Amino acid sequence: MAELNTGGGEGKKGGKKVRSKKQNAGVDLTAMVDLAFLLITFFMLTTSLSKPQSMDLTMPDKIKDPTTKPQEAKESKTMTILIGKDRKLKYYMGILKEPYQGVGPTDSTYGQNGIRKIILQKMANLKASGQVGKDGVVVLIKAIEEATYTDMIDILDEMAITGVEIYAIQDMTEEEKAVMQ
Amino acid sequence: MAKMKKSSTRIDMTAMCDVSFLLLTFFVLTSTAKTPEVHPVDLPVSTKETKIPSDDILSITVGQENVYIGIAGKEDRKDILTRMGQEYKIEFTEAEKNAFAGLENFGADIREMKTLLAKSPGDRMQEEFHKGIPYKDSLNNQLSSWVRNARESSWQRKESFLKVAIKGDANEQFGTIKEIMNILQEQRQNRFYLVTGLRSDDF
């Protein structure tokens, strides 16, 4: 359509006969395409196609309500993750002073080969005795003030990946702070 | 002798034109312009992909221990500013409220808000005017006031619960984030959306 048909070869045969120029039916679209692409580029660059994602976090109510009892968790189901400075990470089971099955504060790392294995192992152990989902593992996350926000998000992400249903962010006790030093 | 067909040097652009306009239409219709931010932060990454609701939300940006607030909705912004004015005994004129309605996010002290709103629209977003919203002093906790007024506004006008999103810088100390969460929890705002980016590396 955009071709120009200005009768190429025919002109030679006809000699010097003067012809009225054939009107070209096609429109030159080059400029229009140029403009369209310019606009496309503009919109592509200014658009934020994907909205940022988020993590839903619900914290327990701080204002004490005397009618509700604090949730109790069995020692055997509790796992505490301690987040320290400079990506330091420790975990222990049960109570700090007398850890469950002797698993006291142990060093670990972030990611699939570190803490995730431990959580999945713990979940598998509890699953063997039929404790899954809301009856399963309870993870307490405690971070010191100097830890970064990324550390906390990484651990919360770990909760999402492993599918731990009950977890809570708590303040670190003095004993735990001493362990993290 | 058969003549060689002369091939045209021109390309038919009709199809190309069609496609490009189709794409153009798509982008025009789907685009929501990026909102300029007073203080852009590096978001931490996660694998979770919960989308953030786009209306009735108050976003708190935390970076270098400074706090910035973003409120969705022009009408909401006007109403919240009026409420803040009542609390801090500052009378805002209609022009100032309209100017505030155009501010997607801000980090200015309420007592300096009048000066900020008197500036030309182009200058309002400059970082020097946004030193962060005071929140460390319990006697002058403006962050708390903003959240309270925003919650009241959203409840009284729309009967909906305000949602709060926290946009923390990846390298921010957790202590700062905890302080913000404590301020929110004092008002029984226990549910937050932690804004993150998408994790691309193998975690």
Automatic annotation (TrEMBL), chain A:
Keyword list, A-Z: Cell membrane, Membrane, Protein transport, Transmembrane, Transmembrane helix, Transport
Membrane disposition: Single-pass membrane protein; Single-pass type II membrane protein
Record has Ubl conjugation as a keyword: no
Subcellular location field: Cell membrane
Segments passing through the bilayer: 25-45
Gene Ontology biological process terms in this record: protein transport
Region (Disordered): 1-21
Molecular function terms from GO: transmembrane transporter activity
GO cellular component: plasma membrane
Pfam families linked: ExbD (PF02472)
Family the entry assigns: Belongs to the ExbD/TolR family.
Protein name per UniProt: Biopolymer transporter ExbD
Organism from which the protein derives: Paenimyroides baculatum
UniProtKB/TrEMBL annotation, chain B:
Organism: Paenimyroides baculatum
Lineage: Bacteria, Pseudomonadati, Bacteroidota, Flavobacteriia, Flavobacteriales
UniProt protein name: Biopolymer transporter ExbD
Keyword Flavoprotein found: no
Record localization: Cell membrane
Gene Ontology cellular-component annotations: plasma membrane
Cleaved signal peptide residues: none
Bilayer topology annotation: Single-pass membrane protein; Single-pass type II membrane protein
Biological process per Gene Ontology, one example term: protein transport
Family designation: Belongs to the ExbD/TolR family.
Keywords: Cell membrane, Membrane, Protein transport, Transmembrane, Transmembrane helix, Transport
UniProt keyword annotation of NADP present: no
Principal subcellular localization: membrane
